[in-house]
Amino acid sequence: MSELHKRTNPSGSVVYRVRWRQDGAYQSETFKRRAEAVEFRGQVDAAGQRWPEGWIPHHGYAAVAASECPTLGEWAERAILSRPKANDRTRGAYLRQITTHLPAELRAAPLDTITREQLGAWVIDLAERRKPKTVRNVHGLVSSVLNDAVDAGLIGRNVSKGLIASLPSAQHEEPVFLTPDEFAVLLAAVPPHYRTFVLFFARTGTRFGEATALGVESVDLGRGTVRIDRAIKRTAEGKFYVGSTKSRRSRRSLTIDPTLVEALRPLVEGRHEGFVFRTERGDRISHSNFTNRVWYRAVDAAEPKIHKRPRVHDLRHTHASWLIEAGVSLPAIQARLGHESITTTIGVYGHLMPDADREAAEAMSRLLGD
After folding, report:
1. What's the pLDDT score for residue 355?
2. Parallel, antiparallel, or unpaired: how do β-strands 225-228 and 230-234 relate?
3. C-alpha dihedral sign at 331, 333, 338, 340
4. Alpha carbon distance, N-terminus to C-terminus of the chain
5. What pLDDT, in 10s, does the model give residues 246-298?
6. How many Å apart are CA 91 and CA 233, to the nearest integer?
7. Does an H or E element contain 361, and which?
8. Which CATH superfamily is domain 69-166 in?
9. Pick from 308, 307, 336, 310: which is nearest to 323 by CA?
């Protein structure tokens, strides 16, 4: 059965919302007067939990002029598929977000008939069911699609601007940094077959996709270097393949220390092709399987001693923190991690250098005198 809820807006005005589940997704309609909401709720129930025949969502039983504009769903697909900077996987993810999070009546509405009230009701409903980060991401996608429509001259303005300003900020997962001793405890809890794989993350700071795509031909044990120039990617259809790294700066050569050289030796010597790191059956290591079957089991075993629950990616953060503690400069860390911009490096790790400003002042004092 449908539900009737009384809501008070931030402005203090009261509205009544009818909500029901149709074809596996929640639908809703909002009214200023309770009597209208009660009547509409009865019509929804009479229609078998469906939009009443002839009712135009968020407009009522009123005829609207025919529009030659493409619908929001049609335009979203055209706009997303024509974005040259997005790869196939990203375009596919965007299209899935449109289909998953935008209700059918909004996708079917011509662009020039969509109102701010309609999108506002959608954002409110989405915020009740999804995390703030998801709401912001999806709203941002829809807003960018509408911006494209403005640029194309299809609509006069983007009616979605500012709708999420009052929503809670998305919560960012804070990096977990391990000390060398804490890492040693965690490493000892990792099954022997995967220890060098985990050691590689901590001593190189590489991304998961870069490490799992590393080929034996990219490892030079004599020189003590590894070449990072490819990564595991996923297509819009969910198929994995070996592609280029994340960005131009991600393609880099890393010097590795003698401990890691010796750990890699039995995995590389005598082989001429194939992945360096493989499962016990010789297959590619997948993120989900490794995380669930290996990583978090090791974390569970180590947590009583280290009192931390790092993700695999936190080994990249840990590597950077060790370099900072050793006095390595942020530009050098940027190059080693493959960050496209120094701004990223400073934003993530700058707080680990609290003495940098004091050292700068002391340097000026030494140079110019007291």
Report:
1. 56
2. unpaired
3. negative
4. 79
5. 677 788 999 999 999 999 999 999 998 899 999 999 999 999 899 999 999 99
6. 14
7. helix 356-368
8. Tyrosine recombinase, N-terminal domain (1.10.150.130)
9. 336
Per mean pLDDT, which of 131-135, 299-303, 355-359 is the most reliable? Answer: 299-303
Q: Which residue has the tokens 């289909």?
A: 99
The DSSP code for 353 is: -
Query: Tens digits of per-residue pLDDT, 66-118?
Result: 567 899 999 999 999 998 888 887 888 899 999 999 988 889 989 988 888 88
Tokens, residue 172: 């960012």
Q: Residue 280: what residue type?
A: E
In this prediction the pTM is: 0.57
Q: Rounded CA gap, 310 and 181, in Å?
A: 14
> Which CATH architecture does the domain made up of 180-356 adopt?
Orthogonal Bundle (1.10)
- Strand residues in the chain grouped as ranges (E): 3-8, 14-22, 25-31, 219-220, 225-228, 230-234, 240-244, 252-255
Q: Looking at per-residue confidence, does 219 or 123 come out higher?
A: 219
Residue 353 in tokens: 């250098």
CA angle 99, 103, 107 (to 5 degrees): 70
| Angstrom distance (rounded) from CA 290 to CA 80 | 33
User: Domain limits of the chain?
Assistant: 1-55, 69-166, 180-356
CA-closest candidate to residue 320, choices 300, 334, 302: 334
Average pLDDT over residues 343-354: 64
What's the DSSP call for residue 56? B
